[in-house]
């Protein structure tokens, strides 16, 4: 039975426990996502998982006796809009914590907007490194994906020639360097690269570069909908029959958006795939499916990490002994390792183990799980 009960407000959603618990106080958690634009395709799944985690905690007594109340806000797709959204959460909504899935170029704006008044739990795959004081990261990193995945490609697909395609912003720029290093580690050759602005849909020049370079593998680091559109164009150009694609930060939501025949030789690497749950995630997926009955997208790595983020916020409050955004943010001034974050919520960092999967129709089939 689903224990979620949704409020009517577009900006906030309340939850009650299955035992109709009564609370005097509320712990307010901001959920900052891009409701539109390139990253908007992940929003419904992330919301659904966060709602479910909050409902579970509220049903079991809340956080230090306080009911979790989620406050949703659109980060937009610019640094100015992300800063304004975070500022509103911190100063007007007085949230105790913030959970967000943003592109890497917006992450510093969210952190600045919060100004240390609340911790920021950053959930997606990202380029790696410390994301700043007051911030915890739950996503896997490029090096965790690229080094084992490209070595597997070299061994099992006899790949020697590699090409890189990405958006022109911080994450793909860093991923480009990480890819170069991973190619050298795998004994391969880097034969070309292309960076494109957000929203570009004319791929003729990039596809011509790929055709001339004749790579065995094309590594793609593009955001959300941009990745979907480029993968369609790649297949329409006839490349998918003879070249392997390794997509970073790509999941079932994007795979469903591809046209028939556009997924041949398409690989992705994530910490979670719905066809290979593992680590006791079956029960979570069953609750998610029961709660939404197909009204939200299939649970993906991004939604799982938003679910975990709610539990991490609760763990931070337990750690400092009270629901206090400033103290919780202060606890995160030094870097909190991901394995420590998972320990705090009673799970293992094996939850973030990389799985390399190949598309088969609208599903991903895991070919190899790499040790964390």
Chart the SSEs and their pairings.
Elements: E1 12-14, E2 26-33, H1 43-59, E3 67-74, H2 79-91, E4 97-101, H3 107-114, E5 120-122, E6 135-137, H4 142-156, E7 161-167, H5 170-185, E8 189-196, H6 204-213, E9 217-221, H7 225-236, E10 244-247, H8 252-257, E11 266-270, H9 282-292, H10 301-320, H11 325-331, H12 338-344, E12 355-360, E13 363-369
Helix pairs in contact: 1-10, 2-3, 4-5, 10-11
| Unreliable stretches | 5-19
Q: What portion of the residues fall into strands of 2 or more residues?
A: 15-25%
From the spread of the alpha carbons, the general shape counts as: globular
Specify the number of helices. 12
Total domain units: 2
Q: What is the count of β-strands?
A: 13
Strand order of the largest sheet: 8-7-9-10-11-12-13
Give structural notes.
This protein folds into two domains: 12-140 and 277-352, 3-Layer(aba) Sandwich (Rossmann fold); 142-270, 3-Layer(aba) Sandwich (Rossmann fold), CATH 3.40.50. Helix 7 (225-236) links the parallel strand 9 (217-221) and strand 10 (244-247). The chain has 372 residues and is an alpha/beta fold. The two termini are 34 Å apart. The protein has twelve helices and 13 strands. The protein is globular, with a radius of gyration of 20 Å. 38% of the residues lie in helices and 19% in strands.
Question: Can you describe this structure in just a few lines?
Answer:
The protein has 372 residues and is an alpha/beta fold.
Distinctive features:
372 residues, alpha/beta, Rossmann fold, 2 domains
């Amino acid at each position: 039975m689903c224990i979620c009960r949704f409020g009517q407000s577009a900006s906030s959603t309340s939850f009650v426990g299955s035992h109709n618990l009564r609370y005097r106080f509320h712990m307010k958690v901001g959920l900052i996502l891009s409701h539109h634009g390139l990253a908007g395709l992940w929003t419904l799944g992330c919301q659904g998982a966060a709602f479910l985690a909050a409902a579970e905690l509220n049903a079991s007594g809340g956080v230090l006796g306080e009911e979790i109340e989620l406050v949703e806000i659109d980060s937009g797709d610019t640094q100015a809009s992300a800063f304004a959204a975070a500022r509103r959460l911190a100063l007007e909504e007085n949230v105790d914590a913030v959970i967000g899935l943003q592109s890497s170029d917006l992450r510093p704006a969210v952190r600045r907007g919060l100004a240390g008044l609340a911790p920021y739990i950053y959930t997606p795959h990202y380029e790696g490194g410390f994301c700043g004081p007051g911030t915890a990261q739950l996503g896997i990193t490029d090096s965790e994906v690229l080094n084992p995945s490209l070595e597997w490609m070299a061994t099992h697909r006899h790949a020697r020639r590699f090409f890189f395609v990405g958006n022109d912003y911080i994450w793909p720029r860093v991923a480009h360097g990480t890819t170069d290093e991973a190619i050298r580690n795998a004994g391969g050759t880097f034969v070309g690269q292309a960076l494109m602005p957000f929203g570009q849909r004319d791929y003729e020049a990039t596809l011509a570069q790929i055709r001339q370079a004749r790579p065995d593998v094309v590594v793609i680091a593009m955001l959300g909908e941009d990745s979907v559109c480029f993968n369609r164009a790649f297949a329409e150009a006839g490349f998918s029959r003879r070249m392997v694609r390794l997509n970073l930060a790509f999941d079932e939501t994007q795979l469903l958006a591809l046209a028939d025949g556009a997924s041949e030789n398409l690989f992705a690497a994530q910490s979670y795939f719905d066809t290979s749950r593992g680590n006791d995630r079956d029960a979570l997926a069953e609750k998610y499916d029961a709660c939404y009955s197909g009204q939200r997208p299939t649970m993906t790595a991004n939604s799982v990490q938003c679910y975990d983020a709610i539990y991490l916020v609760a763990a931070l409050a337990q750690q400092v002994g009270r629901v206090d955004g400033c103290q919780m943010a202060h606890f995160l001034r030094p870097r909190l390792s991901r394995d420590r974050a998972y320990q705090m919520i009673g799970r293992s960092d094996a939850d973030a183990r990389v799985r390399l999967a190949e598309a088969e129709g609208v599903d991903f089939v895991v070919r190899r799980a790499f040790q964390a």
